[in-house]
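Morning!

This is the sequence you dropped in the shared folder:
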Amino acid sequence: MANGSRQAAWEFFGTELRRQREEVGMTQAELGSRVFVSGAYIGQFEQAFRKPQLDISQRIDAVLQTDGIFERLCRKLIDDKRYADYFAPVVEFERTATRICEFAPTVVPGLLQTAAYAGAVTIAANPFVTDEYVEEIVAARRERAQILKGTTTPEYWVVLHESVLRVPVGGPQAMAEQLDCIARLMRSRTVWLTVVPFTAGAHASMAGSLKLMEFSDTPPITYTETAFSGTLIDDPGVVKRAQRAYDLLRVAALSPEASLALVESAAEDFRRCASTT
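The structure's back. Tokens below.
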């Protein structure tokens, strides 16, 4: 589904939500309290500023007794088999974010991955899949990266742990090309990227990756991910803690200049390794 038609569908979701809510004589605040979000969030859903998660849509159906219409609409809009169920809503939020701040402790973030790197990561996690499946997953990641090239490009801040630069995903040549790509994006100021070096020791997000997304007219949200699941969080208190953790990661990281030098040095190391094999 194209971005424009998808947004129109979310607007229909919001219009229908408002109609059903008003039909039973319930205010936004009343509905919000029943589905465990604020009344302001209900208003943002109705204006299609914010997209509700599946569990919220299910609770709305239960409260308004709408026979599953909002669950079905939500499933339809986030149903992209190229993404895990828990990640599909994140893709929608990335498209409307004004700023994305990401910490990656082990793997290059999807928005920065080259085709070879993305393919190697996919095969490592799914060794028996077909070439067609790998191509589809790689295409989806490359499609996501288009948000960094559009007229409404979000600010993209990335903190990598040095381990991301050292593991030869896809082999030395593929890794050299991946790091060269990151260096080009840094030099063109498409991404503001810094690296937490090994020497920094323990850091503020030892449990896994972290993504913060800010929007022009709705509150920020955060997304955390482990090997087999991910969680979108919009609770203001938790988001504030995530923002503090990200601030601490940035403090622990090298300067942008030193980070670029480290990325380029690691790329050259892999290039030398590739030339001797």
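Headline: The longest helix spans residues 3-23.

More detail when I'm at my desk.
O.
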